[in-house]
Protein backbone atom coordinates (compact mmCIF):
# COMPACT_ATOMS: atom_id res chain seq x y z
CA UNK A 1 0.00 0.00 0.00
CA UNK A 2 1.25 3.42 -0.90
CA UNK A 3 0.60 6.17 1.65
CA UNK A 4 1.25 9.75 0.57
CA UNK A 5 1.09 12.62 3.05
CA UNK A 6 2.00 16.26 3.39
CA UNK A 7 4.59 17.55 5.81
CA UNK A 8 1.80 18.42 8.25
CA UNK A 9 1.78 14.73 9.16
CA UNK A 10 5.51 14.00 9.33
CA UNK A 11 6.34 17.32 10.98
CA UNK A 12 3.71 17.10 13.71
CA UNK A 13 5.55 17.43 17.02
CA UNK A 14 4.78 16.40 20.54
CA UNK A 15 5.33 18.68 23.55
CA UNK A 16 9.02 17.70 23.65
CA UNK A 17 9.46 18.68 19.98
CA UNK A 18 9.77 15.12 18.68
CA UNK A 19 8.55 14.65 15.11
CA UNK A 20 5.70 12.21 14.49
CA UNK A 21 7.23 8.86 13.42
CA UNK A 22 4.93 8.05 10.49
CA UNK A 23 6.43 4.75 9.36
CA UNK A 24 6.84 3.37 12.87
CA UNK A 25 3.28 4.30 13.91
CA UNK A 26 1.80 2.77 10.76
CA UNK A 27 3.84 -0.40 11.29
CA UNK A 28 2.66 -0.65 14.90
CA UNK A 29 -0.97 -0.26 13.90
CA UNK A 30 -1.13 -2.09 10.55
CA UNK A 31 2.09 -4.13 10.38
CA UNK A 32 0.36 -7.51 10.52
CA UNK A 33 -2.50 -6.64 8.19
CA UNK A 34 -2.28 -8.16 4.74
CA UNK A 35 -4.20 -5.41 2.99
CA UNK A 36 -5.27 -2.62 5.34
CA UNK A 37 -8.31 -0.55 4.47
CA UNK A 38 -7.19 2.80 2.98
CA UNK A 39 -9.89 4.66 4.89
CA UNK A 40 -8.68 3.13 8.15
CA UNK A 41 -5.13 4.29 7.41
CA UNK A 42 -6.26 7.86 6.71
CA UNK A 43 -8.48 7.92 9.82
CA UNK A 44 -5.69 6.49 11.97
CA UNK A 45 -3.14 9.08 10.85
CA UNK A 46 -5.64 11.88 11.38
CA UNK A 47 -6.49 10.87 14.95
CA UNK A 48 -3.01 9.63 15.91
CA UNK A 49 -1.25 12.84 14.86
CA UNK A 50 -3.83 14.85 16.84
CA UNK A 51 -3.09 12.77 19.94
CA UNK A 52 0.67 13.02 19.29
CA UNK A 53 0.59 16.81 19.08
CA UNK A 54 -2.14 17.40 21.69
CA UNK A 55 0.22 19.13 24.15
CA UNK A 56 2.33 20.91 21.56
CA UNK A 57 2.28 24.68 21.20
CA UNK A 58 2.00 24.98 17.40
CA UNK A 59 -0.52 22.49 16.00
CA UNK A 60 -2.13 24.40 13.14
CA UNK A 61 -0.23 22.88 10.17
CA UNK A 62 -2.56 21.47 7.52
CA UNK A 63 -2.54 17.76 6.73
CA UNK A 64 -3.44 15.71 3.68
CA UNK A 65 -3.20 11.93 3.39
CA UNK A 66 -3.82 9.68 0.39
CA UNK A 67 -3.81 5.89 0.47
CA UNK A 68 -4.61 4.80 -3.09
CA UNK A 69 -5.07 1.13 -3.89
CA UNK A 70 -4.77 -0.60 -7.24
CA UNK A 71 -7.98 -1.54 -9.01
CA UNK A 72 -8.88 -5.20 -9.16
CA UNK A 73 -8.17 -6.92 -12.50
CA UNK A 74 -11.01 -6.28 -14.90
CA UNK A 75 -12.34 -3.38 -12.82
CA UNK A 76 -12.76 -0.07 -14.61
CA UNK A 77 -12.17 2.95 -12.45
CA UNK A 78 -14.89 5.58 -12.46
CA UNK A 79 -13.82 9.02 -13.54
CA UNK A 80 -15.74 11.96 -12.17
CA UNK A 81 -15.46 15.26 -14.00
CA UNK A 82 -16.73 18.59 -12.84
In terms of quaternary structure, the protein is single chain
Sum up the overall morphology in one term. Answer: elongated
Order of strands, main sheet, comes to: 1-2
Spatial separation of the terminal alpha carbons: 28 Å
Give the amount of beta strand, in percent: under 5%
- What portion of residues is helical? 25-40%
Total strands? 2
Rounded average pLDDT: 84
Pattern of helices and strands: EHHHE
- Runs in which pLDDT lies below 50 for 5 or more consecutive residues are none
Helix/strand/pairing category = mainly alpha
The number of distinct helices, counting runs of at least 4 residues, comes to 3
Sheet having the most strands: 2 strands, antiparallel
What does this protein look like?
By secondary structure, the chain is mainly α. The chain is 34% helix and 5% strand. The chain contains three helices and two strands; from the N terminus they run E-H-H-H-E. It has a two-stranded antiparallel ribbon with strand order 1-2. It is elongated and about 45 Å long.
Amino acid sequence: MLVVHTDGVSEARDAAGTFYPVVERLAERFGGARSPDPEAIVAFLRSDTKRWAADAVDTDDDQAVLAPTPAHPGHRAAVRRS
